[in-house]
Amino acid sequence: MKTILCIDDDAWVLETYLEALRPRGYRVLVTTSTNAGPSCVKYEQVDLVLLDLNMPTKHGLAVYRELEATGKVPVLFVTGRSHSFDPKSEQFKKEYENELNGARTDVLFKPFTISALYEKVESLIGTGAYAPSPTNKRSPDRFLSAIGLRSGPPGS
């Protein structure tokens, strides 16, 4: 089963990811903590990160740099601000040339449709699978909650 880590400060968006991606055969971990992502990637086999760019505590590109330091993992940037990834923007050109060129990344603009989400996810990691991978580095769920992650609805 492929694992997707979702980092967003909007609980509604995180619930949308859970409800849309779990039935498609993905294991979905969600967090509002920008610090949880790199820890999760270090201890869990994460196949894709859905990363909000405009977070209140740390910008998504700073989180991306931390994720890259722990190992290569595809990242789907999610943003409600189209100017964040405007190819005509000098800031975007500089960031793309310095950091994103050659990386397995893509952008999903909010608001998005579920079909657009599926398309972007599947283009980066393929379809979900229902059988556990023998190479997973799974750790106990109490570790996940200790670093601010959950893999189900509140209270699960």
List the keywords.
156 residues; alpha/beta; Rossmann fold; five-stranded parallel β-sheet; 5 strands
Q: How is this structure best described in words?
A:
The protein is built from six helices and five strands; from the N terminus they run E-H-E-H-E-H-E-H-E-H-H. It has helices spanning 11-21, 36-43, 60-70, 90-100, 114-125, 141-146, and strands at residues 3-7, 27-31, 48-52, 75-79, 105-109. Helix content is 38%, strand content 16%. Strand 1, helix 1 and strand 2 form a beta-alpha-beta unit. It is globular, with a radius of gyration of 15 Å. It has one domain (3-146): 3-Layer(aba) Sandwich (Rossmann fold), CATH 3.40.50.2300. With 156 residues, it is of the alpha/beta class. Strands 2-1-3-4-5 form a five-stranded parallel β-sheet, with helices on both faces.
In brief, what are we looking at here?
The chain is α/β, with parallel strands linked by helices and 156 residues long. It has 6 helices and 5 strands. The chain has one domain: Rossmann fold.
Quick one: biggest sheet? 5 strands, parallel
Q: H/E series, N to C? A: EHEHEHEHEHH
Structural class: alpha/beta
What is the CATH T-level topology?
A: Rossmann fold
Largest sheet: spatial strand order: 2-1-3-4-5
Assembly category: single chain
What is the CATH class? Alpha Beta
**Cα-to-Cα separation, first versus last residue:** 20 Å
- What's the rounded overall pLDDT mean? 79
Count of extended strands: 5
Helix proportion range: 25-40%
Q: Helix segment count?
A: 6
Portion in beta strands: 15-25%
| Radius of gyration, taken over Cα atoms and rounded to an integer in Å | 15 Å
CATH homolog superfamily: Response regulator
Shape: globular
CATH architecture: 3-Layer(aba) Sandwich
Q: How many domains is the backbone divided into?
A: 1
Parts with pLDDT < 50 across at least 5 consecutive residues: 131-143
